[in-house]
Every structure is written in C-alpha cells, then in structure tokens.
Amino acid sequence: MYFVVATVALLLSRFEGGLAFIWGANAFLMAELLTSRTRYWPRAIIACAIASAVATALFGMGPLAAIPMAAINVVESLIVAIICRRFVPDRRIIGAIRPLMVFIIALCGVANVIAAAMAATVASFLSPVPFGASWLQWYSGHVLGGLTFAPIMILLLQGECGRWWRDTPVRAKVEMVGLLALFALGIVHIFFWARYPLLFASLLPLVLIAFRTGQMGAAASIIILAVVGGVATMHGVGPMTLIPGSTGARVQYFQFYLALSFLLSMLVAAELNSRRRLFLMLQDSEARYRAIAEHSGDVVLNIGVDGIIHYASPSAAEQIGCAPELLIGQSAANLVDPHDRALVIATHRRALAHPGVNHMVEFRPLVSDGDLQWCEMVSRAVVDERGKPSGVVSMIRDMSRHKARQQALQQVAARDSLTGADSRHAFLEKLEAEILRARQGARSCLLLIDIDHFKAVNDRYGHGAGDRVLTAFVERLRPGLRSVDSIGRLGGEEFAILLADSDIDRASMICERLRVRMIDPIPVDEAGGEAISVTFSAGLVELDGKSTRSAMLEAADKALYRAKHSGRNCLRLAA
C-alpha cells in the first residue's frame, strides 16, 4: 500500500523535478505505529522504508536519494508516533479534541518541520529546486497527506469503521451515503462546472456532515474533497486556476484550503463525539443515581447553593415523615434542630467551597417519624461545566441506634467496672472542666482518698474480699455527697472526689462526714460473717484557676502523703 501510494504521488505531483507536492504514503505508516504495539513497529518501519526507497529510486530523484528519503520518511512517522504515544496513552487519536490536537501539533509543528529541513537539504543537492522551495513542497505535501489520510487509516485499523457499520442503524447509513453523494456532486460542481470561484460553498456541507454523521462522515467528506479537488487542480480546471503561477503553486494553495477544511470538519466531529460520549455517560450515571436514590433507605437530597431543596428521594416519607414533594422548595435547614442548624449550614458551605470532597456532619432532626433521633449527612458539591459548584447532593441516614450504642459505650467507659465510680479518664475530664470554672470565679475542691492498710486486706482475706471492700467503700461514700459532686477511682485503692461549689472549710466538713460513714465494719466474705473496719487518709486542695490539672493533683497527692505519715485516718490540706 505504501509503495502504491508513493508511486502515484511521485508520478502525478513532481511538477518541477524535485519533491512531490502531494504525499499521503506516510499516513499509512503513522496509522500503523499509532494503533499497534511497539514490538510490531520494526516490521512496519522496515517494510515502509523499503517501499519508499524503491519508489524514490524508480520514480523519484533516483537511487542516490532512495535511502536518505526512506530514512526521512521513517523519522517523520516515528516523531509523530512517539509524541502521540507520550501524550495520548490510550492511543485514541481520533474522536476527541485533545488527542486530535496532539496529533496535529506533532505532525505540523514538529515532525514535518524537522523532516522538511532534512529532505530539502537532500533535494537541493540532487535536483534543480532550491532549499526553500523544496522545504515548502515537502512540508505542505506531507502535512496534507497526514491530515487527510491518517485519520481515516487510524479509524480503519482501530476497527471503528467496522464497528460503525455494525452498530449504526440502516436509516443512519442511508442518510450518510446520501449526504456524501450530495456533497460529492456539489464538489464536482464547484471544481468542474461552476463559472465563479465557490470554494466557500463546501464549508457548510462539511459542517453539516460532521454534525449528522460524526467522524466517519467527516473523514469521508475530506477524502472526497481531496480527490475531486486534487484531480481538478492538477488538470488545470476549477477555482485554483485563478491563482497565477505554476501548477505546483496551485496545488500548494489547494493543500492549504484542504487543511483548513480538514480542521473545520474533524474538530467539529471530534467535539461532537466527545459530547456524545459525555451524554451517554451522563445517561448511565443518571440511571444509576435514580435507581439508588429511589430504592435506598437513606434520604437523598439535591440542595441548591442557597440551601433550597430541589429534589428529595421517596425514602423521605418513611425516614422523616414528610412527603418528598412537600420538601421541594423548602430550606434544608428547616429539617435540622436549631441547636445543630449552624453546624449543618457550615458543612453545606464547606462542601461548596471544596468540591470533590465528601463532608460529613451529625445532627438532630427537627421533626421525625418513629425513633429517628440522630442523623448523619454526607454532602458533596456538584459542579457545572466551568467547574463552579451549582449545588450539593446530600445523603441522610438514620444513626440513632449507632448513637445510642456510642453513648452506651461512652457511659461504660466512663465508669469503673468494679465500684461504679467514674473511671480515671472520665474523672480527669470533669476535673479539667471544674478548673475552667474556677478561672471564672467558681470555688471547688479536690479530695484525694487512699484506703488505709488495704494491702493487708488483700493479703489476709484475698482479692475477692478486697474487691467487696472497694465496692462497699464507694457505696457508703455516695450518700454523703451532693448531686454536683463526683467520685472517681484513680487506681487500686486510691479515689478522688470533686467537690463543686465548695470552699476549703466546707470541703473539710464534707470529708469528716464521709469519715463518719465508714465507722461500721464492712463484710469481707460472701456470707457476711466476718467484717473489718476501714479508714482512709485524705489530702484536700482548693482548685486554682491559674494552675493546671497536673499541678492540682500533685498538690492534693502531697497532702495525702502527709496524712499517711501522720498516723493515717486523717485529712491534710495542701500547702
């Protein structure tokens, strides 16, 4: 194929004895390289190089130019293939604007600029045509051939033509054939029969064919224009004869006209093809979204930038007790408890400010049907064709059970499993909060308690008895505390009591009252036959809003240490 096309070009378009004015042979090699795996490249390159060398030797500038021209043809095709493979990894050159532009730039802006300079150098030595004219002949002829024939060859090698023939309805095929036939008749009229230059008259049919038939029709119309217009120009008829100069100059002008026609039709077809694919993707996405939204237990809302609901899924009736059609046009904030409304609005604004990221918020609904007490909403912005947020899609799910389990787990974690007192972590959090109150003027105290000689209880009666003593110890202390007070187990036999709204004197009185409650012995066996008396040592400190939690604990611990070394069963105040 390469040899036949190259031979025809050399026989018909070497008007001045130099390079051919029209060259479409390289389009076959480019198409092969762009559509095949790289391991198959050597066989295509070798075959086309041999074909180029033989055609040049027999019908071109002779044997001396055969090998250099063959190498230059291969270099041109390789440059185009390498650039396109680099920037279009999926090898889909035809059918979208960006890949097609990469191909055009690689062919017109890089490959043929380099190859034309190399070929013009060879031609200026072996033919009477000067370097500048040779460079223009090569560049215009190879650009025309690549733009005209490479796209259709790529479509053929990728199987697009066969796929189009299989998948296109008969009516569309008939329409395309009819449009191409009318176009061919019009081009024949323009180049052979018209009394006036009507080159502009082909542009509207080119666009119409691209709109109606896509890239296949656009490629076919360009070939029709190239064949009919090329034959007329080389035979000295048609509107190109109005251009003064040689036949070669007229052919070059025709190539420029043909290149513009190619860009017009193929770019329109590529853009339409991209939009068609996008439309199909949107249809599939819409179908999936509709199926999920209408059959999901979660509530799906489409919310505008202004917070107004534009769509509500059918599950809204079951989840929040409101018909979907009644929600449309309402503000989404009206569904949220006023205490959580500001947080939900902030999440909505954050989703609009950061599209492409999921934003989650938990809130209590204003009204609900059934046991819906807590909701989780995941929001994501929807962007328009300019990338600007046009709204938000939000999914709302019932998380009341999860919230209840979470609260239950928090309550379990906040309690000491043995005594029922606050856990160390929970008590320290309460202490931190009370210190913040102290900074605002509140007066509260921290009491550290350690059971005296508790190790002896474990050693004599066992750890089971020790556990019963610890449990009974807390049970006896609780009635002596107020509802605002808190007792926590810090570890082992060490406890802490937070006395809220109490100065040091009142806290000391409460401590003595607690000591009185420990007068009665505590049973140490399950039968209750044996009991022991339990006492405790205590250290008391008044909370200082200027000090840290660690400082308060350390001060109370030092006071407790002095109580232990003062004979135990006593209270000592922090210095």
List the helices and strands and how they pair.
Elements (H helix, E strand, L loop, with lengths): L1 H12 L11 H11 L5 H19 L3 H25 L9 H30 L4 H27 L2 H8 L2 H24 L9 H32 L12 H49 L3 E6 L4 E4 L3 H4 L4 H4 L10 H16 L5 E5 L11 E9 L5 E10 L1 H14 L10 H16 L5 E7 L2 H8 L1 H15 L8 E6 L2 E6 L4 H14 L4 E2 L7 E2 L3 E7 L6 H16 L6 E3 L2
Helix pairs in contact: 1-2, 1-3, 2-3, 2-4, 2-6, 3-4, 4-5, 5-6, 6-9, 6-10, 8-9, 9-10, 16-17
- Indicate how many domains the architecture comprises: 4
Q: Percentage of helical residues?
A: 55-70%
- Please state how the strands of the largest beta sheet are arranged side by side: 2-1-5-4-3
Please report the number of helical segments.
Answer: 19
In short:
With 575 residues, this protein is α+β, with helices and mostly antiparallel strands. 60% of the residues lie in helices and 12% in strands.
Structural features, described:
This protein has helices at 2-13, 25-35, 41-59, 63-87, 97-126, 131-157, 160-167, 170-193, 203-234, 247-295, 316-319, 324-327, 338-353, 400-413, 424-439, 454-461, 463-477, 504-517, 549-564, and strands at 299-304, 309-312, 359-363, 375-383, 389-398, 445-451, 486-491, 494-499, 522-523, 531-532, 536-542, 571-573. By secondary structure, the protein is of the alpha+beta class. A hairpin with a 5-residue loop joins strand 4 and strand 5. The longest helix is centred in the middle third of the chain and has 49 residues, at 247-295. The strands form three sheets. A five-stranded antiparallel beta sheet has the order 2-1-5-4-3. It is built from 19 helices and twelve strands. The model has no long low-confidence stretch (mean pLDDT 86). Helix 1 runs antiparallel to helix 2, helix 1 packs parallel to helix 3 (41-59) and helix 9 (203-234) packs antiparallel against helix 10 (247-295). It has four domains: 1-163; 168-295, no CATH class; 297-403, PAS domain (Beta-Lactamase); 415-573, Alpha-Beta Plaits.
